Amino acid sequence: MNKIIELFNIEGKIVDCGNHGGGYINDTYAVTCEKEDGSKVRYILQRINHSIFKNPEGLMDNFVLVCDYLKDIVKANGGDPNRETLTVIPTKDGKNLVCVDGNYYRMLLFIEDTVCHEVSQGADDFYRCAKAFGNFQYMLKDFPAEKLIETIPNFHNTPKRYETFLKAVEENKSGRAHLVQDEINFILERKAVTDSLIDLLNAGEIPLKVTHNDTKLSNILMDAKTDESLCVIDLDTIMPGLAAYDFGDSIRAGACYSAEDETDLSKVYVALELFEAYVKGFIEGCKDGLSAKEIETLPLGAKVITLEQGIRFLSDYLDGDLYYKTQYPEHNLDRTRTQLKLVADMETKWDEMNAIVKNIAKENK
User: Fold this and answer.
1) Residue 210 maps to a domain
2) Can you spell out the DSSP letters for 329-349?
């Protein structure tokens, strides 16, 4: 590992390297170096999983473009660019990653005195998470999204996900389709929902933005002393998208008290107090960075992204569990059912969700 580390423009002598964090996709290591004056500096070394991110060079181009842009914003606001955004350490020949034995590695400056929370403890945590991702949107509101590649093509192209689902139903590789007719019909009945956001984008009613696409609490570093949000991390999925995607994925994953694979569907519902907390934080964080139409589509984003995830889980179940890791034969089906239950619950609470967004938007004018 030291030979890889030494390819980067690090300061000092390597004194330690060990596994760090609990990410599911990339391999992450904390590297400690000692400088001549005895002080130490730490770095993060990551192996990019190129089986998922098939264009590591393009991914890192996105990464650097966004980080450099954010550093200028943070400086202009009187902040610390080395703590409030990620710093990519170049290689000794000026590149932003290296390839060794077919594996791709990048290095980042370690942001000291921070903590990362894996699980929200309630509405206050969810509000802070929302405000951090809203502010992230705000800082990037003028960034030209067309400069970025799609690191995972068609990641939130819901119509494309729907087409893949229809193919999975038709091919029925697992022979399970007869077991899930209710779930298949639920999705078929909501075909118009899968087209809704893309139709608005194509009609020019909502703009293409820079989106994070993995808006969970564990992707925010908190200041260890104040526990206030400091820096949004994990920028591998940053790419062109819609503000409603980032909002919607947070609601899908965080505005309920149940696990993603909960089998007791009576426990699966949208908790409106969590939804309201996130709306408040997100709109406050975005400031004037969202148009009236974007704000109006936030609940739709929650519905579309939740339905999309249900489609993805069910497609994989029908294909024989090829994409998502499963712990038992019906795991993807259980995941599917929680997502579809959330969609159904959103539909029963649709007027309330829209009223919450409208009222909070009015308060923040």
Assistant:
1) yes
2) TTHHHHHHHHHHHHHHHHHHT
Per-residue pLDDT tens, the chain, 365 aa: give them.
899 999 999 999 999 999 987 666 789 999 999 999 999 999 999 999 998 899 999 999 999 999 999 999 999 999 999 999 999 999 999 999 999 999 999 999 999 999 887 766 789 889 999 999 999 999 999 999 999 999 999 999 999 999 999 999 999 999 999 999 999 999 999 999 999 999 999 999 999 999 999 898 889 999 999 888 999 999 999 999 999 999 999 999 899 999 999 999 999 999 999 999 999 999 999 999 999 999 999 999 999 999 999 999 999 999 999 988 899 999 999 999 999 999 999 999 999 999 999 999 999 88
Residue at token pair 């390839």 = 99
Domain with residue 241: its CATH number is 3.90.1200.10
Q: Whole-angstrom Cα distance, residue 347 to residue 342?
A: 9
Same domain for 65 and 147, yes or no, is no
Do 193 and 330 sit in the same domain of this protein?
yes
Please tell me whether residues 187 and 98 are part of one structural domain. Answer: no
Beta partners for 169? none
Among the candidates 93, 112, 131, a domain finishes at 112
Pairing of strands 98-100, 103-109: antiparallel
215 CA to centre of own chain: 4
Strands 239-241 and 209-211: antiparallel
Q: Which amino acid is at 337?
A: R
The answer to whether residue 198 is domain-embedded is yes
Q: Angle at which helices 331-348 and 181-188 pack, to 10 degrees?
A: 40
Question: b/e for 261-278, b at 16 or more Cβ within 10 A?
Answer: bbeebeebbbbeebbbbb
**Whole-angstrom distance, CA of residue 151 vs CA of residue 281:** 28
Print the domain residue range for 90: 2-112
198: burial class by Cβ within 10 Å (0-12, 13-18, 19+)? Answer: middle
40, 129: one domain: no
Greatest C-alpha distance within the chain: 69
Nearest to 107 by CA among 41, 52, 28, 40: 28
